[in-house]
Amino acid sequence: MRYGLLGPLEVYEDDGAAPLPLGGPRQRAVLASLALRANETVSVDYVADAAWEDPPASPGSNIRTYVNGLRRRLGDDAAHPRLLVTRPPGYQLRTRSGEVDVEVFEDLAARAVSAAREGALSSAAHHNGEALALWRGRPLEGLAVGSALQAQAVRLVERRLAVAEQYVQVLLAMGRPAEAVGVLRPLVAQYPLNENLAAHLMRALHRAGRRTEALEVYRQVGRVLTDELGVPPGEELSAARRHILRGSIPAPAPTPRRAARGGGTADTMPVGAPAGSLPPDGTVFGGHRTGAAWPPAARPAVPELPGLPDAAAVSVPSVLSVPMGTALARTTSSMTAPHPARPAEPIAPAALPRGPAQLHGMPADIAEFTGREAERARVRSWVRAVTGAPRTATAPLVQVITGMPGVGKTRLAVRLAHELAREGHFGDIQLFADLRGHTAGHEPLDPGTVLARFLRMLDVPPDRMPCGVEERAALYRDRLHGRPSLILLDDATGPGQVHPLLPGHPSSLALITSRRGGWALDGASTLPLSPFTVEESVALLARVVGDGRVTAEPEAAERIARLCGRLPLAVALAALRLRARPVRRLADFAARLAPEDTRLDRLSVGGRTVATAFDASYRTLPPHRQRVFRLLAGAPGPVLGPGRGAWAKDADEAEDLLEQLLDESMVRQTASGAYQVHELLRVYARNLPPG
Question: Quick one: how far is CA 19 from the chain centroid?
Answer without folding.
Answer: 33
